[in-house]
């Protein structure tokens, strides 16, 4: 694999994914029983945006950099998950330096409770080494393991409650993501009460429509789509937007996700006309 998330860390897609991740975890925290947070493609866990990869791409400038430049009065009007996210980034930077940015495993470690646990997979040897160094939390198990095999081996977890974050590099998972449809179908069969969260890029609308049709055909209920497109669909750029497909979203998450995305959209959009933020049910209960 050639993909390295360091080039893309902190971009608009990371912002969207991480704010909604915080909202999901906080809603899981509303019930007393412990749960498991599973991250199938953990990456390095933390990223230094002052290093060459992030500086070369500059993608963070249109993502987290925009938000940290906002006036405090504007941030105070943001949804709570956005405010929490920005406080998390500020906390990390106070511990490291102002160029650092958190990945989803680090954010997970900040928001699960003492009785909860985490499982993180990462296949690439050098990235796995960084992940183990960056996430030193006794509640977390860090594994150098293929997600397609590893996820099915660890579910359902002993806690019975929990969430799976799936954010692959999309080097093998191309076209309409057939591998991911199969993975979600098999995972749901093993753990029908789990919350499954799939991040995916939006580059070709027709491809996304085919993916959604495949997911509908699985018969899985309670499938929610969250989209943030900072460019119009027909703009010839590398990434027009991104989406989260969420199976079994927690109660009232959909309503709050809509509020969050409508707040983020004007701050992250790349053009005055076009693009969108939307939350909709792909399959109802």
Automatic annotation (TrEMBL):
Top-level EC class: transferase
Statement: the UniProt record of this protein carries the keyword RNA-binding: yes
Keywords linked to the UniProt accession: Methyltransferase, RNA-binding, rRNA processing, S-adenosyl-L-methionine, Transferase
Pfam families xrefs: RsmJ
Catalysis performed (reactions): adenosine(2030) in 23S rRNA + S-adenosyl-L-methionine = N(6)-methyladenosine(2030) in 23S rRNA + S-adenosyl-L-homocysteine + H(+)
Any one Gene Ontology molecular-function term assigned to this protein's record: 23S rRNA (adenine(2030)-N(6))-methyltransferase activity
GO aspect biological process, one term: rRNA base methylation
Residue(s) at site: Interaction with substrate rRNA: 3
InterPro entries hit by this protein: RlmJ, SAM-dependent_MTases_sf
Domain of life of the native organism: Bacteria
Positions contributing to S-adenosyl-L-methionine binding: 18, 41, 104, 122, 146-147, 167
Keyword Methyltransferase: yes
GO terms under cellular component: cytosol
EC number(s) given by UniProt: 2.1.1.266
Active-site residues per Swiss-Prot or TrEMBL entry: 167
Family: Belongs to the RlmJ family.
Reported function: Specifically methylates the adenine in position 2030 of 23S rRNA.
Subunit structure: Monomer.
Name used for this protein in its record: Ribosomal RNA large subunit methyltransferase J
Species: Alkanindiges hydrocarboniclasticus
